[in-house]
Amino acid sequence: MAGTPLAPIPATEPTIYFIGVTTGLSFILRVFPKWAEALRLGPARIVGIDLPLHAPAEDYRRVVAFIKDDPLSLGALVTTHKIDLYLACRDLFDEVNHLAELMGELSCMSKRDGRLIASALDPITSALALSAFLPAGHFARTGGELFSMGAGGSTIAITWNLMQPSRGDDRPRAGSA
């Protein structure tokens, strides 16, 4: 981050943050400027904030409070820290979307009319990804099972999507260990 989570530096132009563990290695830091240019966003930048896995709650709170209070800090994409950050900072948000409440995590912070909003986007993006590669009726037709590795936002969202009652019989078969 410009500065560190313990001593953030106020943004001097519209800024979105990318909160992760090793953000300096992320491709988004090279892609975002091209997106901003293509979308004609004007002056805009993305800044990485590196926090260790399972950082202390006060570090998450300091980062979120900074983004909330700094006028040119417009929000953040959250990766590895989705659940921990949500648990540590739930009360700092002016609004939490229903999927963030349901999933117990957030992947996006944004500002609207001076309000800081927490959103979980993994349920939406995982549904789009599943529909792009999983043929309709796959589980109903094949009786297939699902093996999903991980314990974070994406795995929770994929499982939630595949377990929706609206899928009827098109859900993974219950396996046995």
Question: How is the secondary structure organized here?
Answer:
Blueprint: E1 3-4, E2 7-8, E3 15-20, H1 28-38, E4 45-50, H2 57-69, E5 73-78, H3 82-89, E6 95-96, H4 98-103, E7 108-112, E8 115-119, H5 122-133, H6 138-142, H7 153-162
Parallel strand pairs: 3-4, 3-5, 6-8
Antiparallel strand pairs: 1-2, 5-7, 7-8
Helix pairs in contact: 2-3, 5-7
Overview in brief:
With 177 residues, the protein is α/β, with parallel strands linked by helices. The protein folds into two domains: 3-120, Rossmann fold; 123-167, no CATH class. Helix content is 37%, strand content 19%.
Verbal overview:
This protein is 37% helix and 19% strand. The strands form 2 sheets. Strands 4-3-5-7-8-6 form a 6-stranded mixed beta sheet, sandwiched between helices. It has a two-stranded antiparallel ribbon with strand order 1-2. It has 2 domains: 3-120, Leucine Dehydrogenase, chain A, domain 1 (Rossmann fold, 3-Layer(aba) Sandwich); 123-167, no CATH class. It is built from 7 helices and 8 strands, in the order βββαβαβαβαββααα. With 177 residues, the protein is α/β, with parallel strands linked by helices. The chain starts with a strand and ends in a 15-residue tail after the last helix.
